[in-house]
Design goal:
It is a single chain. This protein is an all-alpha fold. It has a single domain, classed as Tetracycline Repressor, domain 2, CATH 1.10.357.10. 82% of the residues lie in helices and 0% in strands. The longest helix has 33 residues. The termini are far apart.
Length: 202
C-alpha cells in the first residue's frame, strides 16, 4: 500500500503541475485574444485540454485563475531577469525589461486592469515588486532612513510606479514603446531618489 502511494503521488503532482500550467497559458492566450477577462470557463478548460471540474479544483474560479496566470507571468518571465540586473548600474536595463514585459503582454494585462480583478492584481503585483524597491532603497540610503521609513517609502514608490505602468498599459498609444517608457520612469526615479537622498542627509 505504501509503495503504491509513493509512486502515484509524484505522478499525480506532475499531472497537477501540467494542468495548472496549461490552464494559465490558456487563460493568457484567450483573454489576450479577446481583450476581455470575460472568457467562459468552459472555453479556457477546453483550450487547456482539461475538464471544467479540474479548473475549479485547481483555482476555485475564473478570477483566481486569471490572477494566478498574471502573477505566474511576472514570476517566470520578469522577476528573474530583474534579479539578474539588480546591480548599481542596472537601473536602465531593469526599467527596459519591465517595459518590454508589459508591452509584450499588454492585451492580457489591460483586460485585467480594466476588469473586476484590477484591485486584486494591483495588490498582488505590489507584493511582488516591493522587495526589489525595498532593497534598492536600503542600498541607496545606506542607513540614513530607519526601517519603518524604508518600508513606507518602498510601498509609496511601488504603488506610484504601479499606477504609472497601469496608465501606460491601459491608456498608452496603440504601439507601446518600452524605450520611451524606460526613459520616463528613469527620469522620475532619478528626481525622487535625489530628493529622498537630500532629505535623508539632513
Amino acid at each position: 500500500m505504501t509503495g503504491d502511494w509513493t509512486t502515484e503521488t509524484p505522478a499525480k503532482d506532475r499531472r497537477v503541475r501540467r494542468s495548472r500550467a496549461a490552464l494559465r497559458r490558456a487563460a493568457v492566450d484567450l483573454v489576450s485574444e479577446r481583450d476581455s477577462p470575460a472568457v467562459p470557463v468552459s472555453e479556457i478548460a477546453a483550450a487547456a485540454d482539461v475538464s471544467r471540474q479540474v479548473l475549479y479544483q485547481q483555482f476555485g474560479d475564473r478570477d483566481s485563475l486569471l490572477l494566478e496566470a498574471a502573477l505566474d507571468l511576472v514570476r517566470r518571465e520578469l522577476l528573474g531577469e530583474l534579479a539578474d540586473l539588480a546591480v548599481p548600474d542596472g537601473e536602465r536595463a531593469s526599467l527596459l525589461a519591465l517595459g518590454r514585459h508589459f508591452a509584450r503582454y499588454r492585451r492580457f494585462y489591460r483586460a485585467l486592469q480594466t476588469g473586476a480583478s484590477a484591485y486584486a492584481l494591483n495588490k498582488a503585483l505590489t507584493g511582488l515588486f516591493l522587495p526589489f524597491n525595498r532593497e534598492n532603497l536600503e542600498r541607496a540610503l545606506g542607513g540614513r532612513l530607519d526601517a519603518e521609513g524604508i518600508e513606507d517609502l518602498a510601498t509609496f514608490l511601488t504603488g506610484g510606479a504601479g499606477a504609472f505602468v497601469t496608465t501606460w498599459v491601459v491608456d498608452g498609444p496603440d504601439t507601446l514603446d518600452p524605450e520611451e517608457f524606460a526613459d520616463r520612469l528613469q527620469r522620475m526615479h532619478s528626481v525622487v531618489t535625489a530628493m529622498i537622498t537630500k532629505e535623508a542627509g539632513r
